[in-house]
Amino acid sequence: MRKNEIYEVLCLNVTNQGYGVVRIDGQVVFVPGLLKEEKARIKIVKVLKKYAFGKIEELQIVSKDRVEPKCPKASQCGGCCFQHLAYTKQLDIKTEYVRQLFIRNHLDCTIKDTLGMQDPFYYRNKAQFPIQVINDTVYMGFYRPHSNSIVDCDSCVIQSKEINEVYQFIKANMNVKSAKTLRHVLIRSNVQGQVQIVFIGKENHVDALVKKITESFKNVVSILFNKNDREDNVILGDSYRVLYGLESMHQTCMSQKIQLHFKSFFQVNSKQMEVLYLQAIHLANLSKEDRVIDLYSGVGTIGCVIAPYVKKVTGVEIVPEAVENAKKNAQLNQLSNIDFVCEDASIFVQKYKEETDVVFVDPPRKGLSEAGICHITGLHPKRVVYISCNPNTLVRDVKLFEETGYHCKVVQPVDMFCHTNGLECVCLLEK
Ligand code: SAH
């Protein structure tokens, strides 16, 4: 097989990344955007040792599950790899992916159907728009898949309406001089419709723009400049200056008030976050006698939500700004049975000696370390509720828990990232 060759193919399956899978002379070829049972003429665009990539030239038989993407840039932008597929079928792909992963790893647990959204659009409360200037033209939008070039976008159908409105205003009013010193604009919104804006770059030339924004939008409550002159792809730098309002904004989760510093983590889908945490609480089967640890606690969202149902919660988080927020959030919600510790979670569990009934873990994509799992099980909790945004590291970690006497009974996937390849799961491990 060679680059630029044309083939007529039948699509056998779709991966969790939205790639159609076809076979040509026994070799697997991945074709982004092609759906199961579709026939197409494809062009080979890249040949690797074990597989190749193709591009759709012409669809010959179209799947009944194919829908018109809501976003005109969906096929160019790296954000949504599933907008062309009916939403319920997206959920099926996500469930099946997790099921196969657990089966392949010989883990015998029930994988429930993925819980999706009624209306899977305009759901995100956080967007990071990259900015580039090429030949004195400003480009803003999202990165192309596996690339640093920007697909210029005027709106995004998975971001909240408020983020879209503010983004469009910023894009329309961004001059070349300001844009040249910026790398990203981060915009967050909350369910009350308030907005926070963080301009990220080498130098601050946005004062005039900030004035225009505050004159035009009553719902913008916080604007910051974050200095980042790093050469790598880390988005936020360390130092920052508040240009308007405060450096934090408010979010809500199941009627708890959450103060959120712009550097702190918060789930990007506020509605599905509540679905996810309700599942987590249900699985944890909490009682008033339970002493709970909330590892990777962020701004304390899970801890604050469960505190009223248990005896005591200890949250552990490594980002100091998030811990500050978490302590404040306990006060805001008048919770007296919750503490927060600023420490690496695995170091904390290694030293911790108190009786523990339930452990919640909600780590970043890379999951837990082997030592961390060992120290968690060393506390002998009755139940561990594992919330994961990466099914691959979840499976790896569940296997380790199983080796130390904890059994994974049930995994509940929740679609927090509709139309994209992201997937959140919550699972229960019982002693
Ligand atoms: N449970 C929280 C946050 C989950 S995101 C919520 O529901 O909002 C994961 C969190 O882990 C982030 O806040 C991140 O700052 C934190 N984190 C990353 N590495 C860590 C470590 N080694 N020890 C403790 N916290 C860590």
Automatic annotation (TrEMBL):
Q: What class of enzyme is it?
A: transferase
Active site positions, chain numbering:
389
One GO process term, biological-process aspect: rRNA base methylation
Among Pfam families, the record links this protein to:
TRAM (PF01938), tRNA_U5-meth_tr (PF05958)
The record's PROSITE patterns line, in alphabetical order, gives: SAM_MT_RNA_M5U, TRAM, TRMA_1
Molecular function GO terms recorded:
rRNA (uridine-C5-)-methyltransferase activity
Task: Supply the alphabetized keyword list.
Answer: Methyltransferase, S-adenosyl-L-methionine, Transferase
Is the keyword Methyltransferase assigned to this protein? yes
Q: Which NCBIfam families does the record match to this protein?
A: rumA
Q: This chain belongs to which protein, by name? A: RNA methyltransferase
Native species of this protein? Faecalicoccus pleomorphus
Give me the gene this protein comes from: rlmCD_2
